[in-house]
Structure formats: structure tokens, C-alpha cells
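Consider today's protein:

***
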Amino acid sequence: MDIINALNDKRFFAGLFKDPKTWYAWEVYLKALFGLPITDKEEKKLFRKCTGLRSQPGKRPRESFIICGRRSGKSFMSSIIAVYLATFKDWSRVLNPGERGYIFIIANDKAQARIIKSYVSGILGQSVHFQKLVSKDLAWEIELHNGVNISIKTCNFRSVRGYTLICCIAEEIAFWRSEDSANPDREILTAVRPALATIPESLLIGISTPYSRSGVLYEAFKKHHGKPGGALIWQAATERMNPTIDRSLIKSALEDDPSAAKAEWEAEFRMDIEAFMPLEFIEAVIAPGRFELPRVEGTSYYGHLDPSGGRQDSMTLAIAHKENGDRVILDVLREARPPFQPSAVAAEYSELLKDYKISKIESDRYAAEWVTEAFRSHGVIVENSDLSASEIYLSFLPLVANGTVELLDNKRLRAQLSGLERKTRSGGKDLVSHGPGSHDDLANAAAGVCVMAVKRRVTPRIWRVDGPGDLKW
């Protein structure tokens, strides 16, 4: 039975939809995904509008990326696709005796993963035909009697290796963030594609609301949208995929913040956000295998603190020195991850600063009074930087681009620097900060101490990097 017939069969999926007509656009997408004929005139028109293709591909795609607005029904449809593939397809002919086939649904975090797991369990539980197939319904995985497991995972490339994959669905892939990886979306897809390649009729599906013009989703869109023969790209606004959405909500959002709303509701990649610093720039100034440098007698050192109250953000400290003119060497980078006692960390950092003969450091200009007092009690003076975080990053960029800094080999620092975003604001003043769901505590401390060491400040709107070796005014 094909997926469209299954959707309309009361024994399987039909009972899940209050009004099947409102899922019309999803049915057209599923026909395109599974290579089913699109013959109706209106369906053809919708197909061309959302894919940019003049006609259906001659064969079913192995990869597809869905770019839809919020409240489009993405997670629910991901769950239906997963259940359909797990229950209607006979994978025993491609699996070895005793081997299990896995369907991964990869979410950005555990909160999103719980929602998807609830959908999958609910879909399987509402049909007596599906119930008979369920062997075990665990916290993050459902095991079926037919040798297939549906596994819900978060975006960690180490957790997806070593499996036989028949399908991988990457949920909200435009927003994947990891403190341990500069490119979690690319690394995870690199890990799963070989496992999918060994299974005929396997599927890789990326599904997300769009964000910035970077990452795997945007690259797939640029490469394949409107071009036959590759991945199937489907781009559609919320209202097209979910006609029940309240239009006044979208209208209000467009009035409040047009750039954000066009991405959130109209499925357009944001034009006002771009990657701040290319990863190749960062890699070029990292000293491989160098994790910390001891104090050298006769050298003057600088310190920069990014404080935290110990609940959500890390408290970080960076120490650096200057040599051969304006060349800056990052010597120490420490991080206290929450939860922690701020007073205890202040005492620990103060002792470290004394080891490097540092009695005065700079800190975020918004540091609370307790920071100054906590360090003063240990003989260290903390002064607020006269630069904002954005100004620090904008001053740090030319140091990295020109290769006048040497950074420590710290994977979390690498990930945080590469995750920084430049957001264009009216009046020509750009804002640089971390992306949604990520952090920049280590990046702030490291950039702050390097800028402090050279005492360099640039006009926030001046520096911009378009590519390797391409630092422009």
C-alpha cells in the first residue's frame, strides 16, 4: 500500500486528521517524495510552485529537504513518514539475519525529541494494526517485531554511527547547535549518508523552518532547488502547508519584525543574518595540540573575564600575551560550566591570575557588582570593558583574518567562534552574537583578551569577510 492510500485508510492514518483537506499540500509533497504520479492540474501547479521543477523527476529521490514555515505540521508529518516506512515496507530482504534496520528522527534537543517521540508513540498506539507490530516502546526508541527500530536522537554525530539505516529524518536542521562541533549538521549527515547508501530505497529527509544563509539546508536549497536529478527541495510558506493558521498572527509578526517573520512564516532564508567568521579563518589561527601555555618570566599578560551567575551560562577566563609587535598569543582559556558557585570560581580564577602576575583584568561591561567585589576580595581588580560584545567581536575579526593571533586548540571555542552571527540592523550598525540555542562564553573571553592586548578598536560596520583571504571595508 502506498503512503497516500495509507493516509486515507481509517485502519492506519486517516483517523489522525480532523480535516484531511487541510493536509492537501502535504499529500502532494508525499507523492513527489515517494515517486507517485502527480496528475491533477492543481497538484501539478502546487508541485511546480514549491519545487521550482517543471515536471516530476523520473525516479524517486534518495534525499529531500523541506523548507516550511512554523506550524506547518513538520514534526507530525515526519512521524507519519517514519511510521509508514517502518510498518509498510518489507526491509527483511535487505537486512542480514539478526540485523535490525533503524529509522532515525534527529532533533535539535531533548525537548523537541520528546514531542516527536510522543507523536510516533501516539500514531502507533491509535491503530490496532500498528499496535500488533510494537515489541517495545522505550523512552527514546520503539522496537517493532519486523526488525525495524524507530529511534529518536539529538544532534550528536557520535550517537548516529554504527547503525544500519533505512531512513534518517533531520528535524529543524537549520537550528542544530553543538558545543562540541562547529558544523553539527554537516558532520551528522556525513556520518549517516554511508549507512543509508548501503540500503536500497533508503531516505534522507531534512525538514526545517529556514534561518540564515549558511549550513546544510541552505546549501541544499542553492544547489538543488528547481534543478532536476538531485535532492528534492520543497519550499512553502506556513499558510500553504497549513491553511488553518490564523492569518492575523502572521500579519502581526510581519509588521513587528519583517525579516524574522519572512523566515518563520513565509519560509524565506533570512537576508539580515550571515555567518560572522568563516571556519577556515578560525582553523588557520589555532595552534594544533596546544591546550595551555605556562607563564614565561618577563612577559606581561592580560586577562578577560566573561562572568556568570552559575545557573545558565558558563563563567570563562582568558589570558594572553603580546609578542613581536601586535601578535597576540592566547595562553589560557578556562571555563566553569553551570551549575557552580560563582564565589568559588572567582577564588580559583584569582589564584590563576596571580600565577601569571595579573592584578587587573577586564570584563563584560554588563558585569554585576558582585563580580567586582568577589575578585577584589582576592586582590584582583575587575574593570568593565568600554566595548560591547559586538564591538569586541568586530575588533577581533581583523586579528583573525590577518593571522595576528594564535588561539588554543579548544573544540568548544572553535564551535562558538564559528557559530557567531552578524545581524544587520538599521542605521548601519551590525550586531554580532551567538545563534539561537547556543553560547559564546569562551568566544567572548578569548576575543576580549586578544582585543585588550592590542588595544585595537574598529568601527562596528567596517570589517566584513566574504571568503578566505577576503577581508573588506
About this structure: Residues 456-463 have pLDDT under 50 and may be disordered. The first helix runs from residue 3 to 7. The radius of gyration is 26 Å. The chain has 17 helices and 19 strands.
